[in-house]
Amino acid sequence: MIVAFSVTPLGVGEDVGEYVADAVRVVRESGLPNRTDAMFTSVEGEWEECMEVVRRAVAAVEARAPRVSLVLKADIRPGVTDGLTSKVATVERHLG
Q1: What is the C-alpha to C-alpha distance for residues 70 and 86, in angstroms, rounded to an integer?
Q2: What is the pLDDT of residue 62?
Q3: Of which family is this protein a member (predicted)?
Q4: Which of 25, 38, 60, 63 is the most buried (most CB within 10 A)?
């Protein structure tokens, strides 16, 4: 499964990069395949693994912010691995 999520601290002002970095650090330290872009962080693994990483990422931001917003989207496709790379490669091949 691939989970794309965004954790946003609320009530901390306009500059939220350091709070978001706390969440991304949790994802990177998880050891699961991941990718971060300007809007979302994606993580790939089994349901329990992914949800635990999301939970810990939210907790990291929640520890420093009075309120947290979470947006989450999941691609649940049993038996598929390396989706973070293969899905993008398929689109690039069609653009090719």
Answers
A1: 26
A2: 98
A3: Belongs to the UPF0045 family.
A4: 60
Strands (E), 45-91: 67-75
Phi and psi at 94, nearest 5°, equal -70, -30
Strand order in the sheet with 41-44: 34-36, 41-44, 2-10, 67-75
The helix (run of H) or strand (run of E) holding residue 49 is: helix 47-62
CA gap 90, 69 in Å, rounded: 32
Q: Is 47:78 a contact under the CB 8 Å cutoff?
A: no
* pLDDT tens column, 15-29: 999 999 999 999 999
With beta carbons less than 8 A apart as the criterion, state whether 58 and 68 touch: yes
Are the CB atoms for 10 and 85 separated by under 8 Å? no
Q: What is the CATH number of domain 2-95?
A: 3.30.70.930
Q: Are 60 and 21 in contact (CB under 8 A)?
A: no
* Token representation of residue 61: 């931001």
Confidence band, pLDDT 50/70/90 cuts, at residue 87: confident
